[in-house]
Fold:
Amino acid sequence: MSHFKYFREKLFIENTSVLHIAKKNKTPFYLYSEKQIKENYLNFVKTFKDINPLICFAAKANTNITILKMLGRLGSGADVVSGGELLKALKAGIKPNKIVFSGVGKTEEELKLAIRKKILLINVESESEAVLINKIGKKINRIISIGFRLNPNVDAKTHKKISTGKAENKFGVSIKNFSAFYKGIKKYKNIKIDALSVHIGSQILSDAPYKKVLGILLKVIRDLNIKLKYMDLGGGFGIRYGKKDKLINLNNYARLVYNFKKKLGCSIIFEPGRSLVGNTGILVSKIQYIKKGLNKNFIIIDAGMNDFMRIALYDASHNIIPIVKTNKKNQAPIEFVGPICETSCKFAKYKNYQKIEEGDFVAITDVGAYGSSLSSNYNTKPLIAEILAGKNNFKIIKKKQDLLKLINS
Structure:
């Protein structure tokens, strides 16, 4: 979050005071740094420049149309996992030949949409899906280009709820089953396997599991003598949520992928999501009440788990910072909680937080990925606004949902 800094004890996003934005807009709201988004993308491009990959932003991380447009203008494609995400990517101006469609449960309607829009790849996640695509292709007299997502049975050492590369996970096809399917591929006249795909999880902080996966893929490709146009290596690169998090060395990984590509001679696709937008946003909230408990004080903010689900869903850790710093300390431990009628609607505990008052503003940090995209109307709460700050100004890029429209829908 290099573009979120304090100046004279007030938090700024780029050149604009967050307090100023908070006083102009009803809290809670998401607030993103335009410069941070662009910087993250261009740094990713620079790291992998020798590989020259197709970068397909994992749209599920943040589906705001303005952010998708911004990434598209920088050269990004999109990795989508639903028909809705596919249509959003196209609406954002991302070209069909830069879109890959993943996901274990694509409907026939979604597959037909992807085929009709002539996207680059449909990453198949089961033999049945491949058979269905072949059937669709036969009806329209077309050969459909597909990728096959493999499950390499590699533990990415991440949270169990965001692990996707182990045999116990629902994603991809086992190497044994893929090998059997591939040996009979000639009977499917309307599909062509142009790619293999792999994605082993999210918030990965080491290149060790990636290195293991590259070795497995190389063996499979050589054993089956597959000629590929693309190798989709997925994403999952972690960010630093806390001081103890050690980031993956992407330069090391870039060298591994470069050598891997030289051996295969195919193009590389990456699907980064969190690493491009995770540290670009904060969730600005107001302190509604301070309630004294027996062992701690509850700081009740106006943002809830419906607005930001990651902590309740993944036991994730996010820092909460004051919008205005003071030197005074609270006398008791505190816990930040939200208004939703669930015990899990809580955010963080602190023993030595600064003194804060009802009506003060705080920000939950590093919420640019899986923040707004996981939000819901639980407790019949409207979806909150999203704001983008750049240079010396800011603009609303998604309005707060109208409550009357919500209750009448």
